[in-house]
Amino acid sequence: MADAAKGHARHVAILIHPDPQSFNAAIAHAYCETVRECGQEAILRDLYAMKFDPVLKNEERPDKRGFEIAPDVRAELEAIEGCDVVALIHPIWFGLPPAMMKGYVDRVIGAGVTPHQVQDRTGQGPLTTGHMITITTSGARDAWLDEQGQLDSLRELSSRYLFRAFSMKSADYLHIGSIVEGLPTRIIDEHLFDVRERARKICARLAVEQDGAAAPPSISDGS
After folding, report:
1. In angstroms, rounded to a whole number, what is the distance separating the alpha carbons of residues 93 and 206?
2. Which of 75, 143, 172, 218 has its Cα between 20 and 30 A from that of 51?
3. Is the distance from CB of 177 to CB of 165 less than 8 angstroms?
4. Tens digits of per-residue pLDDT, 160-215?
5. What is the strand order of the sheet 10-15 is part of?
6. Side-chain half-sphere CA neighbours of 131 within 13 A
7. What does DSSP assign to residue 214?
């Protein structure tokens, strides 16, 4: 992946929720606004609004001889090419990410990467050498999810595995539970404040990296 121009780090926020008025959408907009306030570039990709097709076709599979990358996937690859951070923002439904999220990994993040390359950690996906943050929400309480052992599973699935499999620099994960209809504005604002603070920390890390100094440990290295 090409390096961003010094002082002009680029973030791509991938919003994966069918409701444009959802709390997930509010998170995506808060993240992008904060990045811009920090003097860095933010691009929002709303997969449902774009009607992104999550279904991997047989001819797209990278382990097939003569595989082809579809035009819609090429458009997404161009959108994230050279970005310093990709922010994946989606809900948790029935204990799992939406199908749209899995399809984006299958068709875009994993485009051209074979299972053998993933196992050997030699896969050169579109986000290699970039950072990733995954922000998820659920109606269930964090304490309940933790009792089921699900928070650790979500963290492994949504950030650490992708971080390792596609040779990214680092991964961060933020989960916000108990998101239900009728939440008080105060609670919503508190959660969005946390999102903004996480975005500021990531921007600060990128600014340090571009100055050539050692980066502060603001983003988990996935270990």
Report:
1. 32
2. 172
3. no
4. 677 677 767 888 989 998 888 889 999 999 999 999 999 999 999 999 988 764 44
5. 41-46, 10-15, 85-91, 131-137, 170-176
6. 23
7. P
The residue type found at 52 is F
Tokens representing 6 are 């010094």
- Residue 17's φ and ψ, nearest 5 degrees, are -155, 135
pLDDT digits (tens, 9 = 90+) for 67-120: 899 999 999 999 998 899 999 999 998 878 899 999 999 999 888 777 776 666
Reduced to 3 states (helix: H, G, I; strand: E, B; else coil), residue 134 is strand
d(CA 211, CA 206): 9
Beta carbons within 8 Å of 177's beta carbon, 6+ residues apart? 137, 138, 139, 140, 141, 142, 144, 145
- Residue with structure tokens 């604002």? 189
Measured in residues, the chain has a length of 223
Q: Please give the Cα distance from 157 to 135 (Å, whole number).
A: 12
90 exposure class (CB count in 10 Å sphere: 0-12, 13-18, 19+): buried
* CA 193 from centre of chain: 19
Q: Phi and psi of 79, rounded to 5°? A: -70, -35
- Residue 140 has a pLDDT of 76
Distance CA 134, CA 112 (A): 22
